[in-house]
Amino acid sequence: MKHNISQDDAGHKKDDSISISESAKNALCVLGVVGDAVQPYLPLFSTVTIIITEINSIYENAKYNKKVCNSLMDRVNVAEFSIKTLERRKNENEKNFRDPVYFRAFHHFIEVMKNIKQFIANVSTLSGFQKYFHANSVKEKFESLTSEFESAMKDLHFTTSLHNEEQRRIDHESLDSDLQEMAEFLNTIGENVIDTNQQLNTVLTEIVILKNQMGSSKSNTTPITANEIDPKELKDPQVGRHDDRRGSTVVRKMLSNGEDVACKTKILDGDGQKIKAHLALLGKLKESKNILKFYGLSKVEDQNVMVFEWADFGSLQEVYGRYDIGWRSKIQMALDICRGLVFLQTCDILHHDIRCANIMMTKQLVPKLSNFKYARHNSQATTDIKEITNILRWMAPEKMKDHKIVRYTFKCEIFRFGMLLWELLFQKIPYEDNDMNKIKDHVLKGGRETIVMNISSQENRKIQNKFSKIIIAAWQQDVNIRASLLDIFLKLQKLAANYPIDTSPTLNPLGSLLLSQMIESVSIGKSATELPDSFQNFTLPTIVPLEEGIEAHKKKDYQKAWSCFNENVKFNSTVAKYWMGYYLSEGLPDGKKDPVKANLFFKEAADDGIADAQLHYAFSLLHTLNKPIPGIKFDRKVFVSYLSRAANGGNIAAQYNLGDMYFNGKILGIKNAELGIKFLKLAALNNDPRSIKILKDNKIDF
C-alpha cells in the first residue's frame, strides 16, 4: 500500500531532518573539542596504568615488610579506581583537562606513583631495605609518601577514604610490626647473610654481580671461571669405606689438606664457558654454611669432575630411611635448611627442587642444600616419567597446572619447602603410593598430605603442633596468603629457642619414635552545543619527560636537559633532584656553579636511595677539605656513611674509591686492608680497571 504524503507533511519531515543533522553535527563538534582536551592526557593515563601494573608485580613478589606494602597497595588500588573513573567520565572532566594547573598536578601524581613503586621495591627485598640508614628512615619515607599521595589525590579532585585517624593507626601498626620483625630477622639470620655491621654479606653482592654479568649481552673483560684443582691434589682416602663410591658418578677423594671431598662426574658439553660461569657462581655460594661447598673442577680417572665437600650421611632422605630423627634435631635441621634458602633468595636464586633427597648431611648432621639449578648434571633432564612424578609430589598447585608455561617463583619455592618440612616431620615421601594424575587432581582441588600427631610425649606433641602450623602456612593454595620465608624462619627460630638440642640422641633406631595417631584435618582455605570561549582555545604547558631530559644530556643538549630536570624536580622527582645537583655542581648549562644548592639536591636524592647521588653527596663534602665552602661542612663519619651506601648500592666508582681509601689508608686516617679488598673486589667484578690493577699488583685473587 502506498502512503501519500502531503506537501505540509513533507515540509515537516525536511525540517526534522535538518534539525537532526544539525544536532548530530553539534554533538560531534562537542565530542571533537572534548577529544582535543583529553588528548594530552592519553599517554599519561597509559603511564599510570603501566606503573600500577609494575607495582602489582613487585607486590606479588614481595619477600619482606608485607604489611607496609599492603598499606601502600590500599592507596595504589584507590588511585587505579580514580584513574579509571576519570577516563570513563572524560566529558564531565573537560574543564579540568584544559587547566594547566591540573595538567601539572597530574604529572606530580605520576611522580608520586613512581616513588611508591620504588619504595615498595626497596622495602620488599633485603638488599633494597639496606638502602635506608635505619628504621626511622623507612618510617619517615613512608609518612612522606602517604602525605604526598593524599596531596596529589586532592589536587586531582580524587576522593579517598584513607586519610583519617583509623587509617593512620593501621599504618603505624603495620610499620611497627614489620620493622620489629625485620630487626629480629636481621639479628638472628647470621653472618652468612648479614655481617656484624648489619650490612649484606659481601659475597651475596658478588653473587648478584656474577648473575647479572651472566645474563648480560655485554662482553666481560674479566672472564668468569670456576676454580681449577690440580688432579695431583686429589688423593685416595687413607682408610677405605664401603660407600667410597656412590653409584657410577660419585667417588670419595681426599684433598691435600686432609679434607674428604666428593668428585662428581661432570660432562662439560654445550656452552662450556657458560657452564664454568655457573660453577664459579656455585663456588661463591659455599660461603653459606647450609649450602654444599663446591671447591672447583678437576679430573679423576681421565673424567671431568666437580669437587664438592663430602657428606658422610648422604642425603636427608637416606638418613630418615635408616633412622628415626629426634624431634628437637628436626627443628634445628629445618631452621638450617631455611637459612640456606634465605641465602639463595637474597641472591635472587631459586633452588627449583627442594626435597630431602637434595639435602646432604655432613658428619656433624648439618644439612646442606645441593643439586639446585647451578649444580645439576647437564644430563639430568626431567623427562623420565618417574622423575617427573617425584618432582610433582612437592610441586606448588599453580605450577602444577602447567609446569612448562607457568613461571617458577619464590612462592612456588615456599610451597616446596612446606612439603619438605612435612617429609622431614613424618619421614616419608609425600603421596608415596599415589600416581601422578591422582596427586595432581588431589592438590589442584586443595587437598594435601595427611597430618598425623605423635603421642609419645607431651613435648613432642607440642613440637609437632607448631611444625604443622608452619607447614600449613607454607602450602596454602592462595599464593597471596602463603607464608613468607621470613615468617617461616622466625617461627622456626622461636621453636628452636624453646626446644634447643639437648642430650637426647639425634639419630634413633628406626621405628622407635614414630608412633602415630590421626588428628583432625586442618582447612587449607578458599545539552548545550555552545561552549564558553575559554573552552574553544586552550594551551597546556609542555612538560618534557625525564627520560627525554637524560637522553638530551647524553647528546650534550644541556639547555634542554636542564629545562627538563628543572621542571620535573617540581614534581618531587628523586632522579630529577640528582640531575639538578649534578648540573649545579658542574655549572651546566651556562657555566654558573652553585655547590651549596647542588649539595642539598644530592642529599635529598641520596636519602631516597639513589647510589649516584650518595657518591656525589659524599664527595661534595670531601671537596671542602681543599676548598672550604660556606654552608657545607665536612664530617668524616657522614662522608664514609654515604660513600659506603653508594658502594653497597652497586656504584662502581664508590666501590673503587672506598676500597682504595681503606686499602691504602687515604683520607680516612685509618688503614683497613680487609675492608679495602672487599670493595676493590666488588669493583673488579664490575670490570673496573683501576681496582683490577691494584688487586693484581698485590697478587690478590678475585
What's the total helix number?
A: 28
Q: List the strand order in the largest sheet.
A: 1-2-3-5-4
Q: How does CATH name the architecture of the largest domain? A: Orthogonal Bundle
Can you tell me the residue ranges where pLDDT is under 50 for at least 5 consecutive residues?
A: 1-34, 374-385, 516-536
CATH homologous superfamily caption of the largest domain? Transferase(Phosphotransferase) domain 1
CATH class of the largest domain equals Mainly Alpha
Under CATH, the topology of the largest domain is which?
Transferase(Phosphotransferase), domain 1
The profile of the biggest β sheet is: 5 strands, antiparallel
Number of domains: 4
**Between the first and last Cα atoms, what is the distance in angstroms?**
100 Å
Which range best describes the helical content: under 10%, 10-25%, 25-40%, 40-55%, 55-70% or over 70%? 40-55%
User: Care to count the β-strands?
Assistant: 11
Would you give an account of this structure?
The protein has 28 helices and eleven strands. Strands 1-2-3-5-4 form a five-stranded antiparallel β-sheet. It has a two-stranded antiparallel sheet with strand order 6-10. It has four domains: 23-188, I/LWEQ domain (Up-down Bundle); 223-309, 2-Layer Sandwich (Phosphorylase Kinase, domain 1); 316-518, Orthogonal Bundle (Transferase(Phosphotransferase), domain 1); 546-697, Serine Threonine Protein Phosphatase 5, Tetratricopeptide repeat. The protein is an alpha+beta fold and 702 residues long. Helix 3 (66-88) crosses helix 8 (165-188), helix 9 (202-214) packs antiparallel against helix 10 (272-285) and helix 15 packs antiparallel against helix 17 (458-474). Pfam families: MLKL_N, PK_Tyr_Ser-Thr, Sel1.
